[in-house]
Design a protein that fits this description.
CATH class: Mainly Alpha
CATH architecture: Orthogonal Bundle
Largest sheet: 4 strands, antiparallel
Pfam families: DUF3253
Number of helices: 3
CATH superfamily: Winged helix-like DNA-binding domain superfamily/Winged helix DNA-binding domain
InterPro entries: DUF3253, WH-like_DNA-bd_sf, WH_DNA-bd_sf
Structural class: alpha+beta
Organism: Geodermatophilus obscurus
Order of helices and strands: HEHHEEE
Helix content: 40-55%
Distance between the termini: 27 Å
Number of strands: 4
Shape: globular
Protein name: S-adenosylmethionine tRNA ribosyltransferase
Strand order of the largest sheet: 1-4-2-3
């Protein structure tokens, strides 16, 4: 995993930790946390990192409230912790 991916993973974790249980974040929020100026270039990578976290069972990626595969989802998605 490269430095940006590691930073994005940490940002996703930190943002979700700061939210109430069940709350979601947008991949762009993680990208903005990592690079406030060049965040747009990181959004696709943030979605990919969310997909890896989902594959590990740590988060769910949702679209309109339903869990989706971020690799095939088109349009805006949200990230949330897996409810235990």
């Amino acid at each position: 995993m490269d430095d940006a991916a590691s930073a994005l993973e940490r940002a996703i974790d930190a943002l979700l930790d700061a939210r109430r249980p069940g709350a979601t974040i947008c991949p762009s929020e993680a990208a903005r946390t990592v690079d406030p100026e060049g965040w747009r270039d990181l959004v696709a990578q943030a979605r990919a990192v969310a997909g890896r976290l989902a594959a590990r069972g740590e988060v769910e990626v949702t679209q309109r409230g339903a869990v989706v595969d971020v690799a095939t989802a088109r349009g805006p998605v949200r990230i949330r912790r897996v409810s235990r």
